[in-house]
Here is the input.
Amino acid sequence: MQLTGGTLAIGFLGTSVSAQDDDPIEAETEIMFDGLTEGWVGVEPEEIADDENPTLILTEGDSYEITFENMDGAEHNIEIVDEDDEVVDEYETDTNSEEGETETLEIDEVTDEMAEYVCRPHEETMRGEIDVQ
Here is the structure.
């Protein structure tokens, strides 16, 4: 796992991320999100553009890169959590409160434990489902 300096982007080496249907988005597509206190907002690809907290369909065993851009200067991070709201395999970033700054989280391997992505400081509004297939 690597962290780099909130838009949430998921570029991946595997097969799928999707919000609108059950079909995975093609491999090597980059997913972009804006991080706002009101919720994660999809930027790219077109299938999630302007969607708030879209469900991400990920393929078990694949690798993904998740990046978010802080759009409001509030404190944000991203965590991948299980059904008990516990962080999976230390997949979390530090908090970031600098508007315009980004954080990147590399997921080495998607597992069926992964249930949601969440911003801990705003867990009531910035939370989306992960559907592992």
Observations:
- The longest strand covers residues 30-36.
